[in-house]
Amino acid sequence: MRRKAACRRVGAAALAVVLGIWALNTPAQQIEEPLNVPDLLVYEGFDYEGVNVSLNGQDGGFGFDEAWDVGGWNQAWQTGRTNFNLGDGTTVNEHGGLEFPGLPTVGSALTRFGPAGQRWAERSISAEELADLTQDDTTIWFSILLGATAQGNARRATFIFGDNGMVEGGGMDGPGHGFGVGLRTDDDGSSGDGTGSPNAVAFINSESATVDVATFTPVLQDGGTHFDTMLVVGKINWKPEGTPDELYIFNISDVTENEPEEAEAVASLTADFDQSTFDRIALWDTGQSILDEIRMGRTYDSVLSRPAPPATRIILY
After folding, report:
1. Beta strand 53-54 pairing with 78-79
2. pLDDT above 60: residue 244
3. Which CATH code is given to the segment(s) 34-307?
4. Mean pLDDT calculated for residue range 15-37
5. What is the spatial distance between Cα 79 and Cα 156, in angstroms, rounded to a whole number?
6. In the prediction, which pLDDT does 229 show?
7. 61-106 residue pLDDT tens
8. DSSP the chain
9. Looking at residue 24, what is its pLDDT?
10. Span 271-294, pLDDT tens digits
């Protein structure tokens, strides 16, 4: 597995005495594998060798029970074709894909080379992971790196976790349910062009998406074909049946900061789902935005691939 960022060293041996209570932290931790962290259940880093590699049939990452199934026409979804310009004068493929400071990353990234046609894709999640991702009275998290295209009529890329796939026009393949994030807006029930912001998206027993436009928009550097890379994190609170479930979307600027408060969300939606039917992730786009580093897990730390805090022993004497 090729790495785009070095593993991080965290923790240190420490000894403290406070009012007769000793707190002893575990020895220094080295994360030898950047994805080997507790509570990370699903991961897709688009780590596929080669140039202009079709996504269809690829089965990397973990937490899935099937390969990617891709539909649509004209410009294909591919990895290894991320030769788009960044504002600093480099190209995306010089970095191996999208990057974000402090986030461990691997492999390439997913994109379409141009806006002709549209593509959709889905991949089913394994039963073991679904059992942890769909329980009432729990909170789950997801994260994704997004590079919104600068092309003004094609900012519509969408990622969802739900019970159906997306098809032509960005709607669901029949009435369905799902929570996620997208560059799209709501144009009277159809997918509209966005500004590059990471908007909250929900399908609520519908073929059409409900969208809450985010209060954050990334910067477009001079000479860039894409906006600055966003690290987008989603928080889903599964409530008991009859109580609306909650989706919060966060734009993360610093991976070392503490878990964000819900009041810091840039977009949010609610819907009363029976999430026990959720079984897949799905993607859709009409343009050439770049998607990378999809994670789903039980905790905020897990979807940033941050190690768990060191264990603490309390010694009374």
Report:
1. antiparallel
2. yes
3. 2.60.120
4. 38
5. 19
6. 96
7. 999 999 999 999 999 999 998 888 888 888 888 888 999 999 999 9
8. --BSSPPPEE----EEEETTEEEEEPPPEE-SSTT--TTEEEEE-----SSSEE-TT---SBSBSS--EEEEEESPPEES----B-TTS-BGGGTTS---TT---BS--EE-SSSSEEEEEEEEBPHHHHHHHS-TTEEEEEEEEEE-BS-TT----EEEEESS-B-GGG-BSSSEEEEEEES-EEETTEEE---S--EEEEEEEESSEEEE--S------TT-SBPPPEEEEEEEEEPPTTS-EEEEEEEES-TTSPPPPGGG-SEEEEE---GGG--EEEEEESS--EEEEEEEESSHHHHTTPPPPPPEEEEE-
9. 27
10. 999 999 999 999 999 999 999 999
Residue type, 141: W
With contact defined as beta carbons under 8 Å apart, do 189 and 208 qualify?
yes
Count of beta carbons in the 10 Å neighbourhood of residue 310: 16
Domain boundaries, the chain: 34-307
Full-model pTM: 0.87
